[in-house]
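Worked example (supplementary).
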Amino acid sequence: MPGSQLKRLKASLKDQGIIGPQKSKKERRKNAQDQNGKGDKRLQRSEALEGIREQFNPFQFKTNARGPKFEVTTNKPANDKTSKGISGRPGVAKSIGEERRRQTLLVEMQRRNKVGGIIDRRFGENDPNMTLEDKMIERFTREQQRSHKRGGMFDLEDDVEEMAELTHAGKIIAFDEEMAMKDDFDGEDMSSDGESDSSHAARRKLKRFRADQADAGDAVGEEDDGQPDKKKTKQEIYSEIMAKSKLHKYERQAAKEEDGELRAELDKELPELQALLFQRGKPQSKEVKGAVIAGVDKAALDKDYDIRVKQLAAGKRAQPAERTKTEEEVVKEESERLKELEEKRQKRMRGGYDGSDDEEVGEDEGKPSNKIAVRAGRGFNPADAVDEDDEDEFGLGKGIKVRPTATELGFDDEDDFLIDDDLVASGAELELDSDDMDSEGGDEDGSDIEPNSDDDEFTKGILTEAEAKNPPIFKASSGKQGDDEDGIPYTFPCPQTHVEMLAAFEGLDITELPVAVQRIRALYHPKLDSGNKERLGNFAQALVRHVAYLGDNFEPHWFPALESLLRHIHSLAKSFPIEVSKGYRAIIQEMEQDRPLGLTVGDLVLLTGIGTTFPTSDHFHQVVTPAVLSIARFLGQKIPQNVADYATGTYLSILAIQYQQFSMRYVPELMNFCLNTLCALAHEKPREAFGLFPLHEPAAGIRIKRATQTPIRKLNCAECRSEHVTTLSAAEETSLKVAILSTTTSILKTAAETWSGAAAFYETFTPAVRVLDHLTSKANSAHLPPTLVVQIRSASAFIKELLEQARLARRPLELHHHKPLAIRTFVPKFEDSFDPTKHYDPDRERAEMAKLKAEHKRERKGAMRELRKDAHFMARENLRVKKERDTAYEKKYKRLVSEIQGQEGQAANEYEREKAKRQQKKDRAKAQR
Amino acid sequence: MPAVVMDTAVMSSAPKRKRQENGKETKKRRKSAGDDEELDVDEEKSQIEILTAEIFESRKHYNNIATLIGLMKEQDEDTHTALAAAESLCRVFIRLLALGSLVRKRDASEKGATVTIWLRERLAEYQDALAALLQKTGTAHRALLLAMVLLKAEAQHINDKEEASFPRGSFSRIVTAVLESPAEELLLVFDQDWVSEFDDIRFYALQEIKVYLTGRDQPVHEIVRDRIFDLLIGIEDVPGSSEELEDFYIDRPNKKKHALYSLTQHKKQAQEAWIALMNLGLSKDQRKQVLESMAGSIAPWFTKPELLMDFLTDCYNSGGSLSLLALSGVFYLIQERNLDYPSFYTKLYSLLDADILHSKYRSRFFRLLDQFLASSHLPAVLVASFIKRLARLTLNAPPSAVVAIVPWFYNIFKKHPLCTFMMHRVPRTQEERDLLQSEGFSDPFLPDEVDPMETHAIDSCIWEIVQLQSHYHPNVATIAKIISEQFTKQSYGLEDFLDHSYSSLIEAEMSKDVKKAPVVEFMIPKRIFTKVDSAAEESDSLLVSLWDFGSS
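After joint prediction of all chains, the assembly is encoded as:
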């Protein structure tokens, strides 16, 4: 831009259109026409001017010394002013500060060393918005109001307000405050002499004061409205209050009446509504109608109505009946349910929930001490968690949901039992589809009874008969024992302990026990009496013990009865899982403490029962785990002394493998025992070790001899008793040995089948093959029946084949395809929004302290700057005042000097003139002379 | 005064004879009547008292000593009299010793010397009689007490020196008698009251035992040997330093450098006694006992434990549980005494046989094994052999053993990362993969190889542990899973896993009360024991098909 500052100013003004050539009249008129744009234009103009001003005064802004910074992402400017690099306006700030000082400091300065003064408190004096006239009017009204308020000449109350406006130093002196002070004064100094008098007076004053306060409180409402604060009398106030409350009451009554009308209307419509709701409710509706008509007490009616509604809501008939499902639907539902159950079982088998393994390892890390116990605890919990899940849909929960509808409505309704029978029948119908279910769910035994009807199967017997018409509880209380055609009593006491049970079942044949149990279960059904639940629980426990007892003293023909009893226990376990498992656990405990290596037949029966009652595939189970442990303990630690021990071990081996049929868990002890048995019974002692299983030298006479003619048979429970075995003849014993060999071979075969997928199958079963081959070697096979040799050979061949498959399928282990763990780093984390001006002090306290210090410093600097500026200002002012004074003095002085000089000049002039005059005169005189 | 002595001897013979008669009489009488016996015993007692009192009165009655000794010796069955006599004699001798009557004095007259010699002879005779009493069951305990009391007096007064000197000869007689005595508990009492109590008694007793064992021509009887063994095993608390040697029965010797003050001398005695015993040979049970208490009470006595080397190596080589027990001793010698035991690890490897995990020394062995394989400088091949062998063993092991082995594996894998190939081996080349596909993978491990360096175990994998991940016991299965988890933990504390058993495992399960209802099998099986009726139903369960429940 060329030219001087002035020229540039002109140019820019012209640019903005502020100055320009004279506008023509036409244009001016046009401008005037769009009046609305006028304000805008003025604004624009002033803005433009402001801009130009800023542009032409570079010292008005504080800018960065090296110009504005380059724009980078991190220092994005907060507003556009800073974007231009302007960081402050010193001129403006200075002028503001100057102005403020002039208002405060200067005034103070001027008032320094001065006393007194008048503060003008006249109304509206400082209000610039009021005209003089307004002020005058306002002042007049105020005065008038004040004088008007005065009610009575001698109204003391009024006086107080009148007397207000006593001020001191411009502040109103509170009267009560003064009074309080006076009180204090009284209390402190005049307590001795004038106490009674002064305190009395004070009290009176206080009383009055309080009354005032109360009145004021009453009148607050009116006063707030800005109305003239006219005092109401108490009478007025009370009457007003009463009127108000009456009004409210009336309003409430009116509303109530309205509601009542509405309700009556609804009530009239109720019969129709009810008729709509259910067709059969006619008599009731009539009743209701009658009630309405009769105008019976409304409250009673309402209550009735409420009760009825509740009944309707809770009533069975009100609930929508389940749609009759088609056969396919039923089957599908059933299979889905089974699938779900199987999934749950799988989950439990894996150890409860998926994360369990990780967690347990984590647990290891945390608490290595008392590890096993802790682990067991962990194993316990997931199972419990599952329990909770299951209880909703599993076993008990559903069983109650379906059946109580029958039972709850009472035993007087015999139809319900018919329905139960139907249910059983429907279960039988399901047989057709059992294959389907099994293929999908792989269900346990393929039992095709519908599970929910299991209980019915056990309890129905007695009750479905004609006697069911009489409530069984009644029969029990009648105390008369009627026996059926088999001589089994219909009623029993509910045995709570095993001793009681023995007494109760005395005289009954064992085969009749299931019927008796069934009757007891029906008699003491939990729905019949509140105490029955506990009774049946104890009964279940006693029954478990009784089964063990019966097992110990068994007869071969008892087994169907025992089976039935075990199934009863199973069914009871669904309702009383805790009691039954406690019963089982108690027996396991006894087993472990008294006879860990001498299990009886009763124990075997119970262990079998556990295997069927509880899911043996669970990762952890409160009953199964100890049971398996005790089986394994026998198999692992027992060194068989006679053939009975081998037989017992064989039974337990079968149980062990049956327990693991689903989960296919490995039981090392089973292999040990089976191989040991085979080696011990073989005629020849093995010359070398076949594997790494510990070999026990058999007792004398165990090795088999000359058994070529012995037929192969199965083992039976009697042979598990050592006292029985000792009475056997040589031929019988040989037969028993052959049976053991045969069974053990089958077990090995089954075990190989079960564990064929195991990782170390090859290592596990190579010794087995060697042992089997040893048995079929010439020296041994000469003493064995040929059929057994064939069996052993086939088993051996079978296992060999599996071994070959296992060898082919074997791969090197690749267990650790884990995501690699990150190496722990000690580099600090990168701060995303790092601000170099900020202090990242990890010590919080120190950081806060530093912050405080910085603030203090800043404040201090600011204050010092202000003080300095104040001082400057004062100095400047002083100087200004002094200069003013000096100039005034100078002026005066000059004026005086000039005045004097003027006077002097005048006098001199006069003198000159006089002199001249005199000279003239003289001259004249001279001249005259 | 020989005459007097002669006189007394003559005189003494009379009452002696009389006593004999009396004794015979009493025997007879005892047979005839019981109530007179008491009277008789009292009579004898009073007579003994009179005799004793006479001895104390004057030297003239010294011959009574001989009478009393005779009384003691001859009372075969009447233990009361014998004991009473023995006690009296003990008192007499203690008094005489205190008076210095038994001390040979240079300036003594001929007569005095004769008396001294005679008294000394009587003392010896008395001690012999006491030894004889020690051989009898009834009197042994009292006799021992008397002998020890007398020993103390003798030690102090047998010489005229101020300092007590230990009467080795008498003590030797006592020790021999105690060892040979059939009396029960005598050895125990001797051990507890004297040997273990007093350092000097122990010192000399050990010395005597050694002399007894070595210095005889005829072989030591088996029973005596057992007794000596019991005695030696019983001596347990080895003094830590010479300062602790302060319990002396006899007054302590004045000499500062006396052998009794030296711990090494004490140890030397014990060591020699042990060696002497071991040279005679120990029974198997005794060996076991020795090995068990080796670290606690035997090895510390040895100043030169190297001397145990032969014993230990013999035991270690003998195999079975004996080797297990010898292990710690051998290791101690290898570690501390630089014993060169060739092929220690081969031997150790051979100990891992089928029975080791079932043995009751399992946890003990594991502690040692952990120690032996703790070094990270062992060749990985060797360590891998141990791992693989143990893994094989776990296939037949009780859960309590598996529980210990798997965490140990973890620790070892951490220490020997080369071995981790046993858990994770990825085939590298396509050929390898093809070969695996076509022929499977046969285990390169040689289970019958004796040398752990040659088993190729490092090329194998621990499928066994993977199989145990589906162990029937939930906790074992979970522990086995740590092998396939990420190895984030530094190591497992082995002690937490070692001492478990079936009963402790069951106890752990049973100690918890059933609070939550356990899951019940939802399907009630139709058949448990009985056979399935028709073909339409499912097949029999395994149990029914293999077992006869009498219902078919």
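Two points are worth noting when inspecting this output. The mean pLDDT of chain A is 74. Chain A touches chain B through 135 residues (CB under 8 Å).
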